[in-house]
Amino acid sequence: MTATPQSPSPAPRAVDAYTAAQQAQDAAAGHGARTFRLWRGADGTGEFRDYTTEAIDGMVVLDAVQQIQAEQANDLAVRWNCKAGKCGSCSAEINGKPRLMCMTRLDELPADEPVSVEPMRAFPHVRDLVTDVSWNFRVKPTITRFTPRPPDAPDGTWRIDQEDVDRVQEFRKCIECFLCQDVCHVLRDHHKHDEFIGPRFLVYAAALEMHPLDTADRTAQLKEEHGIGYCNITKCCTKVCPEHITITDNAIIPLKERVVDEFFDPLKALVRLVRGKRRG
Ligand code: SF4
Ligand code: SF4
Ligand code: FES
Predict the structure, then answer these.
(1) Please, what's the largest Cα pairwise distance for the chain?
(2) Residue 48: strand pairing partners
(3) pLDDT tens-digit profile of 246-266?
(4) So what's the pLDDT on residue 144?
(5) Distance, CA of 104 to CA of 106 (rounded, Å)
(6) CB of 188 within 8 A of CB of 121?
(7) pLDDT tens, position by position, 34-93
(8) With helix as H, strand as E and coil as C, how does 27-44 read?
(9) Nearest Cα to 120, choosing from 233, 39, 239?
(10) Which tens digits make up the pLDDT trace of 96-139?
(11) I need a surface site. Which of 33, 69, 121, 151 has the fewest CB within 10 A?
(12) Residue 133, Cβ neighbours under 10 Å: how many?
């Protein structure tokens, strides 16, 4: 009997090549099993725990966290509402950077390392990924409210230039996610919550100060109570804003200029001194 020479079958190699190519493609697209390093614990204590779950096309970090919650960790605390980048509830630190979980796609993150998700650090920790952001809601009412001038027409309406309307429109996009507050070193590292309102509320103050109908002057408040001087224009807040509000250049710097004009202009300082003496 003649032995037939064994030749390697091409089929398995093609399959292997296909599998390897598919795996590489999946990894690049963020598909397949992915590991998530989630912060677990309460009241400021805790640790990272690793969970592995299957990622599919188009998934965002919030999808993966919810999948882990459904499959492996029913007691995981996570806050979210809209899943559309509009409610500002799902703020967290993803791979160390303040971001919205619902707007961070897995294929934007390195596929070959775990995705870390931890709570914001500038506010008190409640449980797992949830922080208590209520300080922000106490700060807001301390800012002098909108004070419009009397209407321009007998029918109770005003006349304003489009250019003036456009200037404040950007600030109105804020979704109060507080990611800018979280990244600001004055709050995060120096804990100046009693003396500094943070970038979110400087944006809010700017929206009021630059509003074409507003008549209130908030410069003294910004300087004395709201700590605008603590901001040293690092621009970290602008970099993390999911609404791409130019927080530093368009809100904080113009407010600082108003404070400087009002309080550090020698002529105005002299006028204030004289007025003060007259009142005294
Ligand atoms: S620019 Fe000012 S407000 Fe923004 S993060 Fe830096 S210090 Fe904070
Ligand atoms: S200014 Fe931007 S980062 Fe700050 S709270 Fe508003 S949307 Fe969030
Ligand atoms: S769930 Fe609303 S912004 Fe993410």
Answers:
(1) 125
(2) 39
(3) 999 999 999 999 999 999 887
(4) 98
(5) 6
(6) yes
(7) 999 999 999 999 999 999 999 999 999 999 999 999 999 999 999 999 999 999 999 999
(8) HHHCCEEEEEEEEECECC
(9) 39
(10) 999 999 999 999 999 999 999 999 999 999 999 999 999 999 99
(11) 33
(12) 21
| Helix 198-209 vs helix 253-263: crossing angle, to nearest 10 | 70
Ligand 2 contacts CB of residue 179 (under 6 A): yes
> Which long-range contacts (C-beta less than 8 Å, at least 24 apart) are formed by 45-53?
46/125, 46/128, 48/116, 48/118, 50/114
pLDDT at 192 over 50: yes
Does 234 sit in the ligand 1 pocket, CB within 6 Å?
A: yes
pTM, two decimals, is 0.86
Residue owning the nearest CA to atom 3 of ligand 2: 241
**79 CA to centre of ligand 3 in angstroms:** 9
The secondary element (H helix, E strand) that includes residue 248 is none
* Separation of CA 32 and ligand 1 centre (Å): 39
- Nearest Cα neighbor of 175 from 60, 83, 82, 85 is 85
Ligand 3, atom 3, lies closest to the CA of: 85
The DSSP annotation for 134-163 comes to: HHHHHHGGGSPPP-BPPPSSTTS-----HH
Residues flanking ligand 3, CB < 6 Å: 80-83, 85-90, 100, 102
Between CA 99 and CA 92 the distance in angstroms is 6
